[in-house]
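Batch manifest, entry 17 of 40.
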Amino acid sequence: QVQLVESGGALVQPGGSLRLSCAASGFTFSGSAMSWYRQAPGKEREWVASIYPIGVTYTANSVKGRFTISRDNTKNMVYLQMSSLNVEDTAVYYCNARNTYWGQGTQVTVSS
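Output type: structure tokens
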């Protein structure tokens, strides 16, 4: 069955960096669009970034220039490199495959 397992969430200070990872299995990863979403407390889940099989990426305006999505098709992994983090980036970050499947999420907390 499809599995998406996120990791890398942590407590980080404002201005810091973090890399999230998502390990995928149970489907044809190399042919699938992969995305990151996030959900802050009391808010709806929002799209953060997507990467398509050929490597084309799209990033939400709120994180553009700070977050970078990438993938490694040899390892069935997708990453989210986050930099210049601020408190508004605090959320549970979710990996998504094919706009259908979801991971369990990983907590990112930005606080001094």
